[in-house]
């Protein structure tokens, strides 16, 4: 995988955002704060998904039975 470090960094960011969302719920923070962080998490998922799709497939992935 070419962009392993970049993908790992994105996953770390996603994990931190999910932790923030959990803290927002625990503190009963304003819903707008939750929505902003939820949007950030969704954006990270889209970024990671597109990065994985851009990677070359191995022969075993191409020839799935």
Describe the structure using short key phrases.
3 helices; mainly alpha; 80% helix; 65 residues
Characterization of this structure:
The protein is 80% helix and 0% strand. By secondary structure, it is mainly α. The relative contact order is 0.15. The model has no long low-confidence stretch (mean pLDDT 89).
Can you describe this structure in just a few lines?
This protein has 65 residues and is mostly helical.
Order of helices and strands: HHH
Q: Can you tell me the residue ranges where pLDDT is under 50 for at least 5 consecutive residues?
A: none
The helix content, as a percent range, equals over 70%
Q: Can you count the beta strands?
A: 0
**How would you classify the helix and strand content by structural class?**
mainly alpha
> Kindly state the mean pLDDT as a whole number?
89
- Oligomeric organization of the protein chains: single chain
**Largest β-sheet summary:** none
- Rg result: 16 Å
- Which shape, going by the Cα principal axes? elongated
Estimated share of beta-strand residues: under 5%
* Spatial gap, N to C terminus: 23 Å
Number of helices: 3
């Amino acid at each position: 995988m070419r962009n392993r470090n970049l993908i790992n960094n994105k996953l770390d960011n996603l994990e931190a955002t999910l932790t923030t969302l959990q803290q927002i719920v625990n503190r009963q923070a304003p819903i707008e704060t939750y929505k902003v962080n939820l949007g950030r998490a969704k954006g990270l998922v889209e970024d990671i998904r597109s990065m994985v799709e851009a990677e070359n497939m191995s022969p075993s992935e191409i020839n799935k039975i």
